Amino acid sequence: MWRRWIMRKVRVAVVGYGQIGPVHVRSYKKHEDKVEVTVVVDLLEERRKSAQEQFGIKDVAADYNEVLKRDDIDAVSVCIPTYQHHDLVLAAARHGKHVFCEKPMCMSMEDAYEMEEVCKKAGVKLQLGFVRRYDNQWLKFKEIVKSGTVGKPVVWRSASAGYGAPSTWFFQRELGGGPFLDGAVHNYDFGNYMFGKVAYVSAHGSTIQPDRTGVDTGIAEVVYESGDRLQLMWSWGLKRGVRGGSVHDVLGQEGALVFNAPNKNPLTSENPDVQYLTVNRENGIEEPFAYDRNDMFADQMGDFIDTIIQDKEPKVSAKHGQEALKVGLSLLKSFETGKSVFL
Predict the structure, then answer these.
(1) φ, ψ dihedrals at 19, nearest 5°
(2) How many other CB atoms are found less than 10 A from the CB of residue 75?
(3) At residue 3, does pLDDT exceed 60?
(4) Where in the chain is the domain with CATH 3.40.50.720?
(5) In which residue ranges of the chain is CATH 3.30.360.10 found?
(6) Hey, what CATH class is 3-130+297-313 in?
(7) Is the pLDDT of residue 261 over 70?
(8) Beta strands in 70-166 (DSSP E)
(9) What is the pTM of this model?
(10) CATH number given to 133-294+327-342
């Protein structure tokens, strides 16, 4: 497998050039020694022109089915809406293309299992886009929590409110699932990464904006077999430009982990890429934890290319995508029934 890539780069088609597609292109271009973006695919002409203007992409197309037939494509970045992931992943795999699929994996567990199976039978890689697993800030967060620095078990709290996603499909129950699927799926994956198996979930919510079929504002809790808890209070229900307050911390018997440098004695560094998380302890003691800021998307896409070149298992696999999706879909069910859902 190594020998195959000695003479040429991995050739990628980025399908979808809305919000995340340009991030994929930019990230691949940071690894031009081993990958080239051969074509960008999008239905909208203005987006195709944008790819050409932003990154000098020479080849653009409107129909991914035609692109998948080409012999000069080795892999596909799936950057289209969630409800379209399943069909594109299956088509790419059946044409022998490796696949990087953005989160959430899809809109049903049946589709998620089929995506894994078809890729496996085709002998192609399937990697999921849970980028926090490549972010040094989040990896430091995990290290602190797992070490028991703030105690065990912990309560991980996340509260935020704003306008939400820019496209309407995000807010529809059957297309994007709303904030508690499309947005919070990052939290579910990272919670699984830190805490392991989920015991049950529960949720209550409402829909503030009348043009939506999915819950846009609610409270959700994920309880792990370890005793740890993830508590979410999220809203994508505000008008554009309106923001509510936010909370992001981890609470334990020994302290609280927060996403900022110490308040009393702010730390400075000659290196602007050195950042800090802080554990607040009894009697006002603040304990800083340093990490090196990195480009998580560039690291993620570089690892995907290495997965192809080195013929190794993806760091973020279909199983990880399925586990996070199951949590999200179970919470949507809890919103609908008003009952806890046991996993």
Answers:
(1) -85, -45
(2) 24
(3) no
(4) 3-130+297-313
(5) 133-294+327-342
(6) alpha beta
(7) no
(8) 75-78, 98-102, 126-129, 155-161
(9) 0.95
(10) 3.30.360.10
